[in-house]
Amino acid sequence: MRIFTGLIFLLAAMGQAGAEKRPNILFVMSDDHTLEAIGAYGSWLKDYVRTPNIDRLAAEGMRFNNTCCNNSICSPSRASIISGQYSHKTGALNLGCRLQADAPSYLVELQKSGYATCVVGKWHMEQWPRGCDHYAVTTGQGTYFDPVLNYPDKSKRNFKGYYADRYTDVALEWLKERDRTKPFYLSLHFKGPHESFDYPDRWEHLHAETDIPEPFNLHEEVKETSPLLKWMHYSFMHDDDAPKSYYEKVRNSLPTAESEKEKRSLAFQHVLHKYLRCVAALDENLGRVIRHLEEQGIKDETLIVYTSDQGYWLGQHGMFDKRLMLETSLKMPLIVRYPGEIGRGTVNDRLTMNIDFGPTLLDFADVPVPAEMQGVSLRPLLRGEDPAAWRRSVFYAYYARAPAHWGIRTERYKLIRFPDVKEVEFYDLAKDPDEMRNLGADASQRELIAKIDGELTALMRDVGVTEEFLKANMKNRKRAPAGSATKSGGKKNRK
User: Fold this and answer.
1) Same fold for the domain at 23-202+270-381 and the one at 396-473?
2) Which listed site, 109, 113, 179, 256, has its alpha carbon 20 to 30 Å from 195?
3) Domain 396-473 top-level CATH class
4) Domain 23-202+270-381, CATH 3.40.720.10 — does that match?
5) Considering only CA atoms, which of 183, 23, 20 is closest in space to residue 114?
6) What is the residue extent of each domain of the chain?
7) Nearest to 166 by CA among 152, 150, 149
8) What are the phi and psi torsion angles at 131 (to 5°)?
9) Which among 38, 13, 18, 43 has a CA at the least distance from the CA of 28?
């Protein structure tokens, strides 16, 4: 009997030891933080961004260069991250969305498996977080100053000061008071650097006397280079009755500028100064959380993920926004640190997606991935493996407003389709990584376009979406080029 009892205790101890080996997880997500505004990605802004803490994560872990969202707009991307599903599966096609009641959730699975779970910051979906022991989240966008956070007991708490400072205070408070018998999962969702890119006074000095270099295509003639995508979006944004972005408001407030080009350059400087200061304040607060993990001696036991809900143009193609299936808005930053498995300073160029985040976290937590999730775990890539069967293309669809579109991005090519026209846009990313030359009407590309179009058809079948569904659910299509059959309808939506 004593031997039997001793065996039970031994097995229990082994089980507890196994549980203790599961990593803590810190998942940090910003809003509209394009990878070009992170020093580790080495863009033309690398000498102007202030992201030492994010850069350090990249130096100590893996940086992904081709992580794509499947719908470049805030709420749908967040729904895809939580559920591991494309927008057409989640039903979260546009802003103001909610996850379906039976949608899978990696948060729910982590909590069920014994993790202490918490979400702090910008939530931006209609229903409150599921699968959380604790949360303190915004309603909608939230504010840059004096934020208000909602708690599970339906109470609200008003804070004074800059949002990132207060979000981080709440996250650190939970980390200090959490149940230490369990591994933890903490989501820290920053509001910045979403427009209007506000920052605390302490960062007013950053680049105060410095002009930020312009992207080479700030003054691109988009009507010529991309009449179906960039020009449709650009013309929509310049409608008198269209909702204006912060950049457009700044540009329109410069009546003394001598030319449209000068207006664009002046507005670029104004926005970039604010954006980079907003990013600096975000990175500063990420550093506070990392220092806490170091002080507690648990940094190396914690899987740390940094990402954003989508990319964002910083003047490329003459625009400040996301939405379109262009590289700058399609791609998301993704940096992962966990020294037990991930090599220092490693880089991965494989095609990865926001629907992969949930399966990856569950894999590291030793939790089965729900069959309903469409993403795959990135753990083999993080280990340095090179799976032969890895995805060769990603599917994208944007539903919200002109120009609604869908398409495929392969390792080299991008084909974009629209609801009401037969024409396509087509880019060779190997020869034209900045997407300056649309080859959709190039007769010499006809065979290749047909081939990639066939791959798009097969990919749509694989991910479970039809052209009929896309056309039926895409709104505000009135901005198709003159001479094309068009349809209009739906409400204008602006994040």
Assistant:
1) no
2) 256
3) alpha beta
4) yes
5) 183
6) 23-202+270-381, 396-473
7) 149
8) 75, 25
9) 38
Structure tokens at 103: 């949608």
Helix (H, G, I), strand (E, B) or coil at 13: helix
Residue 355 near residue 90, CB atoms below 8 Å:
no
Q: What's this model's pTM, rounded to 2 decimal places?
A: 0.91
- Phi and psi, residue 139, nearest 5°: -95, 120
Pairing mode of beta strands 62-68, 352-353: parallel
Question: Distance (Å, rounded) from C-alpha 166 to C-alpha 147?
Answer: 8
